[in-house]
Known about the structure:
It is a single chain. This protein has one domain (4-113). 6% of the residues lie in helices and 56% in strands. It contains 1 helix and 9 strands, in the order E-E-E-E-E-E-E-E-E-H. It has one helix spanning 110-117; strands at residues 8-11, 16-22, 26-29, 32-44, 49-61, 64-66, 69-77, 82-94, 99-106.
Amino acid sequence: MARIKDRLSIINKDLNIEGILQFKGKMIVEGALQGALQGEQALTVKGSRVCADVKVDEITIGGSFEGNIVAYKRLKISCTGNVTGTLFCNTFIIEAGGILNGEVKQLAPKAVLSSLETKKIGYTPSSQTFTSP
């Protein structure tokens, strides 16, 4: 059986997904995602388009992102990343050239986080549609 850190899921550049995605291991987004994302480690690459509420341990954003992110360990905006939204994290990195339109907030103490952990990500489909990046 594969170890968690060996698990890999990819949303290909020609794939547009709408809904709630829960994953283990690493998720790479090359295409378009609208909805909610919850898991361990996420990576969006240059040319990707994400409009979602995200709860992950770690995330690196290299494409276009709009929404709210809770990153329990680390959040990084790479030099090609463009983020609009509210970010909650303990470690925040933004490379030269990365764009942030929003705010960054430090995560709440563990007592508050444990109560948040019990809440699931919500997603309501919208009339917004994606075209391939």
